[in-house]
Amino acid sequence: MPGKVLKSFKTRSGKNAILRYPKWEDLDDLTKYVNEISRENILVSFSGEQRSKKEEAEWLANLFKDMEDNRRVQVLCCVDKETAGRGTIGTKTTMSKKNQHVAIVGIMIRKKYRGDGIGMVVMKELIEQAKTFLRGIRLIELSVFESNKPAIKLYKELGFKEVGRIPKGLKHRGKYYDEVLMVLGI
Ligand SMILES: CC(C)(COP(=O)(O)OP(=O)(O)OC[C@H]1O[C@@H](n2cnc3c(N)ncnc32)[C@H](O)[C@@H]1OP(=O)(O)O)[C@@H](O)C(=O)NCCC(=O)NCCS
């Protein structure tokens, strides 16, 4: 299953891209990718800090275990063998059995690949994976900075609805923002 190709497509600007599951050989590039985005210090939870190769390996090992249990899945978009972006969707990791039908989704596209249609293709595949790969998912949930307009526009285009806000629930570069909660029933 690791490395399985899910789809080939052309980006809006005509680049050849594939969607696939990650594999161990991605470790170096994924470590680079995650730290590159973190250094941008943008509106995502992993911002500012750096992750070592060992930490990314532990993260990947946990992911592969969750994928074996059909609890969580990650989709990479690769262009010219480079990770252009990745998205992850999985059941909530709470102790409660009452919300195991709810999945949480997250996505990050590398800066040079943004605005080329990749985020839309990855999100559509994650929704498909929630229906076919994860078990018993009925609802997809996400949380986003109120100021992250590109992300909110993308989610709305996919049918996500804003269901609430936590006033000043997120902080970035010393400023407080509303945390926008969005859901999609599947
Ligand atoms: C948000 C993000 C995932 C979108 O992915 P992307 O590949 O850049 O988006 P796409 O090119 O597929 O565009 C899809 C839609 O998103 C919206 N969008 C993308 N970039 C946008 C921008 N700069 N401004 C406004 N809307 C934008 C548009 O609605 C677009 O649809 P369109 O075809 O009508 O233009 C990507 O920009 C990203 O990874 N950003 C940094 C990390 C992040 O913010 N992640 C989300 C955290 S909740």
Based on the model shown, name its key terms.
eight-stranded mixed β-sheet, Aminopeptidase, alpha+beta, 4 helices, binds coenzyme A, single chain, 186 residues
**Content-based structural category:** alpha+beta
- Distance from N terminus to C terminus (CA atoms, Å) equals 24 Å
Strand order across the biggest sheet?
1-2-3-4-5-6-8-7
Q: How does the overall form come out from the CA principal axes?
A: globular
Strand content: 35-45%
CATH class, named Alpha Beta
CATH architecture: 3-Layer(aba) Sandwich
Main sheet specs: 8 strands, mixed
Figure out the total of helices: 4
Low confidence ranges: none
Domains, number: 1
Distinct compounds present = coenzyme A
Describe the structure.
- The protein is α+β, with helices and mostly antiparallel strands.
- The chain has one domain (5-185): Aminopeptidase.
- It contains four helices and eight strands.
- The protein has helices at residues 27-40, 53-68, 118-132, 149-157, and strands at 5-10, 16-20, 72-79, 82-91, 102-109, 139-145, 161-172, 175-185.
- It has an eight-stranded mixed β-sheet, sandwiched between helices.
- A hairpin with a 2-residue loop joins strand 7 (161-172) and strand 8 (175-185).
- Helix 1 (27-40) crosses helix 2.
- The radius of gyration is 16 Å and the shape is globular.
- The two termini are 24 Å apart.
- The model has no long low-confidence stretch (mean pLDDT 96).
